[in-house]
Amino acid sequence: MPSPKPRIRIRFGCLTALIAGAGLFLLCLNGYRAVISSMPDRAGKIRLSGLASEVRVTRDGFSVPAIDASSRRDLFLALGYVTAQDRLFQMELSRRTAAGRLSEWLGPEAAALDSLMRKIGLADAARHAARSLSPESAEILDAYAAGVNASAGPGGSRVPVEFRFMDASFEPWTAADCISVLRLFAWQADSRWLVEPVRQALSPGMKPDRGGKIPAELRDRLLAILDAAVRKPEPAGLTPDPFTGTFGLAVSGPRSYSGRPLLIFVANSAVQIPSPWYQAVLRCPDFEASGFTVPGYPLVLAGHNGSTAWAFSASGEKRSPWRPVSWDESANPVLKRDTLTVLNAADIPIETGRTPSGPLVCRIPAKPGTAGGMTGMVLEWAGLEPDDETAVLLNMNRSATAAEFLAKSARLRLPGFSWIAADTQGGAGISGAVRPASNRQEGTVWITAGDFRCDGILDRAIPADSRSLPRFSRLSAVWPDSQPVSISDCRRLLADAVSVRSSHLVRLALPALTGLQRSDSAEAAGLRLLSAWDGGTRTGSPAAALAETFLDRLCSNLIQDGSAPSAAGLAVRIPSLRLDMLQDSLTKPGAAKTHAEAVRKSFADAVSAMKEKQGADPEAWNWGSVHELRFDHPLGGRWPFRGFFRTDPFPMGGSQTTVESWPHRPGGPQFHIVSGPSARFIIDLSDFDRSVSCLSTGQSGQVMDLHYRDQMNLFTAGGFRQDLWDRDKIERSGGSVLRMEP
C-alpha cells in the first residue's frame, strides 16, 4: 500500500503557500490603503471643521490650487489643509530640522545637525515669538495650523505613507511651527554662518586666527554640517546649504517689450523631491496673492497680487554672524543640559548656552600657558530675535505698488534678503540687506547668486562697469542693449549655460600646457579642446567635461591641505570658495612658473580620468554623462525606501558658474549635482496671465500621486507652465473643483 506522506506534504506545502500568498496580499492591500488614505482631495465635496462658509478650491492640470474664500480665516484654513495633503511629511521634516529632532527618525547621521540646531535654539525662538503675535498674525497662523491638523485626520489617520513606514505618529501643528519653518527657511538661505568663519580665517590679518586656523570645536561642527550638506542621498535637502544662489531680476518698463516691467525669480536650493516650494493662488475679500509659499508657512514669499509682483535674493549681510566671546562671572552664559534621542543608538548628551548676544554654539578652552579662561563662539543672528514677521509679510503681500512693498519690507528683520518689486504702473526697485553701490533713478535692480551680482538699470542699457562680473556679463550677450526684453528673452537667459568664470580659469592655466610635446593622442586632442573652449557647458560638450574635470583636479593639487584644523581644509569643500582660492593661486605674481608642474599634472590626471570614464576619444566625451541630476527623497537611501522614492538621473548642462546654475560635488569625473533651481517664474506685469512658472518636481509630495513628478521633465528641459491669474481662465483650464463646506 503506497504511503500517503507525499500527498500530505504536497497539501501542506500548498496550504503554506496559500497562507503566505494571502498574507502578502493583505500586506500589500494594507500598504495600498495606507497610501490611498492620505491622497489629496481634489474634486467633489468635503466637510472641513472650522470653516465659516464654503470655500472653493480649483486645481489646474498641474494640481496648483486656486482657493476662493469669503474670509481670511477660511482662506488660510483651506490653504493649510491642501498644503498638508500634498506636503505633510516634508513639513514634518522641516519642523524636526528646526527643533533638532531629526535623529529620532534618521539616526546618528543627523546628530551633528541636531546638535547645532539645539544650540542655536531656532524652535525655542519661534515658540517665544508665537506668544506675542498681533491678532491678524495669530488668526492666520492658527487657521493654517488648524487646516494642517484637519488634513492629518483624527489621530493622524490620514498621514502620508512615510509616517507609517517610520512607525511615527503625527504631533499637532501649531502657530509656533509655522514660524519655525519660516525661520529655518531664512537660516538655510543665509550661508554666512558657514562661509564667513572660513573666509575670515583664509584672510591674513583677520580674526579669529591669523594662521588660517579655526577653533577646533567650531571647525568640527562646520565640517559635520558640510559632510551632511554634500552627502547624498541622506539627509537630502535638510541641511543648511552653502551652495545655493537664489536671485531675482526686475526689468523696468522702458526696457520691456510691453512697456510694463517683467520680474524674474529663480529659487535655488539643495536638490530634493518634492520641491521646497508650494504654489497657490489665494483669494478672499481683503487678500489676494499668487505665487510660492514654503510648505508649513502660509504667506507668499515670491509672487504677485494683481498689481505688485515681488521676489527676493538670498544675498546675505556683510558682517559675519560669529563673534568670539570671553566672560567672567558677570557675563557667564546660562548653560543647560539637553539630550538627543537617536534612532538605533544611545542618546547623546549635549550642552546649550545663552548669552546676552545670542546662543553659545561652542566653548573654546584657553590655550595652555596663556592668560584668561574659557572663551567661545556666539551666533548673533537676527532670525533669533523676537519679531512678528507674519504681520510684516502680510502687509508686504497686500502692497499696491512696488514703492509701498519696498517700504514695508524694510521692517522685516529676517536676515539676508534683498527684496525686488515691480508694479503695473511701471515702478521697480529693491530694498534689503545689500543695497546698490550707487544711487540711481527708479528702475534699479539687484541680481545676486554667487558672482551673479550687479547694481545696474535695465531700462535702456546695461552699465559698462558691470560687464566684467562673470555671470552678469551674460546679460549683454543674451539681451542686446538695443532690443526690448520679452518673456522669451527671459527664458533664454535662464537657460544660458556659458561659464565665463570657468573659461577664464582655464585660460589662466593654459600657458603652462602650451608648447609641450604630447605623445598621448588623447592629451593632444584634449589640449585642442581646452584651447578652443568658449565656456559652453551644454550636455553634449566634450570640452566642458574635460575643462571641469581639469579645474577640479587643479583645485585639489594647488590647495592640498593635510592640516585638519586649517581653513583651507574647510574651504575646499565649499564650491564658491574653491574657485576663489583657485583664482587667487593662478593670479599671484609668478604663479605661471610656480604652479606649472601642478597644472601639467592636473591636466594629465583629468585626461586619464576622462579616458577611464568615457573612452579614449576626446571628441566622444560628454559633459551630461558626468554631470548628473538626481532628485533624492530625504529617506530615499534607507531601507525600505531605497529606490522607491528616488528618480532616474538627468544629464544636465550648466555648472555652478553659469546662469543655469547646477553646482556639483567636487571630486570628479562623476560630478553629482548637489543644488540648483527648485522653482522659477517670469511675471509679466502687462498681463499676469502671460506669466509662466515651473517647479523642479511637482506640487505633490505623495509618491504615488500623478503630480509627484509631473513637472520634472518640463523643468529639467528649461520649460514652463502657464501661470493663470484670471478667475474665469482658471475655471476653464480643465482642472478639478473641490468644495469645502463647514
Give a quick rundown of the structure:
With 742 residues, this protein is α+β, with helices and mostly antiparallel strands. The chain is 37% helix and 17% strand.
Radius of gyration: 27 Å
- Oligomeric state of the chains present here: single chain
Give the biggest beta sheet: 10 strands, mixed
Distance between the terminal alpha carbons, to the nearest Å?
A: 76 Å
Helical element count?
A: 24
Helix content: 25-40%
Q: pLDDT below 50 for ≥5 consecutive residues: which ranges? A: 24-29, 204-211, 228-243, 433-469, 561-565
Mean pLDDT: 80
The proportion of strand residues reads 15-25%
| Count of distinct strands | 23
Fold and architecture overview:
The chain is 37% helix and 17% strand. It is built from 24 helices and 23 strands. A 10-stranded mixed β-sheet has the order 1-23-2-3-6-7-8-9-15-16. Strands 4-5-20-21-22 form a 5-stranded antiparallel β-sheet. A 5-stranded antiparallel β-sheet has the order 10-14-13-12-11.
